[in-house]
């Protein structure tokens, strides 16, 4: 038990009012009303089936993502979190995050979500430009985004996050920095500031918009990073910035190759077993199938030769040094198994190594894909 990684819980709420053209998450445009209580009952039944995989460990963090979790009624949220607490040992100081849209209805429920146990809200702002929001298929305006952030700030939650995108269709440097300044003015303890990428099977993939070129993107990143640093934010992951003491514990657990249960439509889980196997679970994607009681789509063990890549793919996104002992502790493999690719990474200047740690260099950050490819199974 002592050697099992920390455990988190991810809960997926699959519905949205409408599908955004850039979104490749498992989300479904709502036709009619959300089946609040019914879906929660299925979530808890799904959770019960997975309990044997947790080895009785306590859950350190919960993340409720989507879709749009804030479409769930406050009563259903209470039922959900009460149900989780009744089935799993939850750490006393567990971080419980919920994603929310800045729409008026959802924002009015924030305090009820807080009463149910949510102590961190992540608001999907994306941009403060009405034109850019329309282009992204977002159904809120800049004023609603600001109101939601102010509400979240006023609740005295343990933290809140704003999600902001850059590299938007036809976005100029000054527009991108203007978005960032408006976000910083709202003083969120945490900012996720990430670049729009065109994902397959999205509306943008079938009709690609014109995005800024690599030089423009680099300028946006460099100057934006300077703005954030000057405002007291520290970058700790590729697209995550936080004021000191406000990093997202749930995402840190993912990136440190911790374990997580995934419940709900299309949710993924990773669960280390006492015998050292790493079990991955994938849940049924479509609400219809899931709510017919067919929760599990597939379950499999991660092969030993895939563990190094999986470990470093997460670990090297974090800017903090990676403790060398974690590799063996979390994969069950000896460091000898990766000595050759490590030496190549060191020779290429992607990494530095001390007796305790590996650290990705500035060059390694720029060539992250090349660094990770060294650890791919033959």
Chain-wise SSE layout:
Layout: E1 7-13, E2 15-16, E3 28-29, H1 36-50, E4 59-66, H2 74-87, E5 90-100, H3 104-108, H4 110-116, E6 120-126, H5 130-135, H6 142-154, E7 159-166, H7 173-185, E8 190-195, H8 203-206, H9 214-230, E9 234-237, E10 240-242, H10 249-255, E11 259-263, E12 268-272, E13 278-283, H11 287-290, E14 296-301, H12 307-315, E15 322-323, H13 324-331, H14 339-347, E16 351-353, E17 357-360, H15 362-366, H16 368-373
Helix pairs in contact: 1-2, 2-4, 7-9
Main location: cytoplasm
Domain Radical SAM core: 1-237
InterPro entries: Aldolase_TIM, Coproporphyrinogen-III_oxidase, Elp3/MiaA/NifB-like_rSAM, HemN_C, HemW-like, rSAM, rSAM_sf
């Amino acid at each position: 038990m002592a050697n099992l990684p920390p455990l988190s819980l991810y809960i997926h709420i699959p519905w949205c009012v409408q599908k955004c053209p850039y979104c490749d998450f498992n989300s479904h445009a709502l036709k009619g009303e959300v089946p609040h209580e019914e879906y929660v009952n299925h979530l808890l039944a799904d959770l019960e089936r997975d309990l044997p995989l947790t080895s009785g460990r306590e859950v350190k963090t919960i993340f409720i993502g989507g879709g749009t979790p804030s479409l769930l009624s406050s009563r259903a949220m209470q039922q959900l979190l009460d149900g989780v607490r009744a089935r799993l040992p939850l750490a006393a100081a567990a971080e419980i995050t919920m994603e929310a849209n800045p729409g008026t209805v959802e924002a009015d429920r924030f305090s009820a979500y807080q009463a149910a146990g949510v102590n961190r809200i992540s608001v999907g702002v994306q941009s403060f430009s009405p034109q850019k929001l329309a282009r992204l298929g977002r159904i809120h305006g800049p004023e609603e985004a600001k109101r939601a952030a102010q509400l979240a700030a006023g609740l005295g939650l343990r933290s809140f996050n704003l999600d902001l995108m850059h590299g938007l269709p036809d976005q100029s440097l000054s527009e991108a920095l203007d978005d960032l300044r408006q976000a910083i003015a709202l003083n969120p303890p945490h900012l996720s500031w990430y670049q729009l990428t065109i994902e397959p099977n999205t509306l943008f993939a079938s009709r690609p918009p014109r995005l800024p070129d690599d030089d423009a993107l680099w300028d946006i990143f460099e100057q934006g990073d300077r703005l954030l640093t000057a405002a007291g934010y520290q970058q700790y992951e590729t697209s995550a910035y936080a004021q000191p003491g406000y990093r997202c514990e749930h995402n840190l657990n993912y990136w440190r190759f911790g374990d997580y249960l995934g419940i709900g439509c299309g949710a993924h889980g990773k669960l280390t077993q006492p015998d050292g196997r790493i079990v991955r679970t994938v849940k049924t994607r479509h609400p219809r199938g899931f709510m017919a009681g067919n929760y599990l789509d597939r379950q499999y063990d991660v092969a030993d030769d895939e563990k190094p890549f999986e470990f470093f793919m997460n670990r090297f996104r974090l800017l903090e040094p990676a403790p060398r002992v974690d590799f063996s502790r979390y994969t069950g493999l000896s460091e000898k198994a990766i000595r050759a690719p490590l030496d190549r990474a060191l020779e290429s200047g992607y990494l530095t190594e001390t007796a305790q740690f590996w650290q990705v260099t500035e060059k390694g950050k720029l060539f992250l894909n090349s660094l990770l490819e060294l650890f791919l199974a033959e």
